Amino acid sequence: MKIVVGLGNPGAKYSGTRHNVGFEVIDYLAAAPAVGTFRTAFSALVAETTEAGEKVLLAKPETFMNLSGRTVRGLIDFYKLTAADVMVVCDDFNLPLGKLRIRASGSHGGQNGLRNIQDCLGTDTFLRLRIGVGQPGPGEAVDFVLSRFKPGERATVEQAVAAAANAVMVWIRQGTSACMNAANGPSEPPKHKPPLSQEERDRRRDARKLKKPEPEPGTPAADS
User: Fold this and answer.
1) pTM (predicted TM-score)
2) Contact 120, 72 (CB under 8 A)
3) H or E, element range at 61
């Protein structure tokens, strides 16, 4: 069994804000025909489906971001799962707009929902899928994450939500490694050194000549 938790704040006031991009991923997944309707349970809206023969729960906590751990703790305890069976989807203003990043453990990075989940579970060993929502200015983080995306940003966000939903499905079907490869993308190719200038090639050639000893006068040449 797998649990996918999208983070956000409940209510129309926060719908479409940067902080609620996790909710958007859950809604995207829940739009599939095989997914049941949302019901209220574990202080969240929860929908159920089956994928690759495995039961999957999609959850949107209604506790507000800072208390998201209550839902995750309740789901894990009730279904007798471990933190490794959970993926949390959330916003991250440290990533460029639309950039995805998946980690199997690590710091909450200042994301208050992740912080509370780690506190409630007593571990950081759960999968977290972060979606870049752009960077705020100095001292503007709180207002920034509660703001809505600009019209020019919406297309990028929608692409990121679709890509995040795809990464979730890869995780369910193929596991963590395949999911991380799908979402994080290939590592950057090694950077090649720029070609040497003609001046540098001449300098190195002259340096090699200076290092090569000249034969003394009258010294016979070595046999080839």
Assistant:
1) 0.81
2) yes
3) strand 54-61
Q: Is 19 assigned a catalytic role? A: yes
Instruction: Give the CA diameter of the chain.
Output: 101
Q: Render pLDDT for 103-150 as a digit per residue (tens, 0 to 9).
A: 999 888 789 999 999 999 999 999 999 999 999 999 899 999 999 999
The stretches of the chain forming alpha helices (DSSP H) are: 21-30, 69-79, 112-121, 141-145, 151-174, 176-184, 198-211
Nearest to 23 by CA among 55, 56, 64: 64
Q: In a 3-state reduction of DSSP, which class is residue 88?
A: strand
Provide CATH code, domain 2-184.
Answer: 3.40.50.1470
The single residue of 2, 18, 19, 130 carrying the catalytic annotation is 19
Q: Per-residue pLDDT tens for 170-205? A: 999 999 999 998 888 643 333 444 555 667 666 777
**Residue the block writes with tokens 């950081």:** 124
- The per-residue pLDDT for 223 is 47
69-108 tens-digit pLDDT? 999 999 999 999 999 999 999 999 999 999 999 999 988 8
Q: Exposed, middle or buried, 67 (CB in 10 Å: 0-12/13-18/19+)?
A: middle
Q: List Cα–Cα distances, 216 to 128, 206, 207, 212, in angstroms.
A: 73, 20, 20, 13
Please state the domain extents for the chain.
2-184
Separation in Å, CA 131 to CA 123, 160, 164, 184: 22, 7, 8, 11
Closest C-alpha to 185, from 111, 96, 117: 96
Measured CA to CA, the distance from residue 91 to residue 143 in angstroms comes to 14
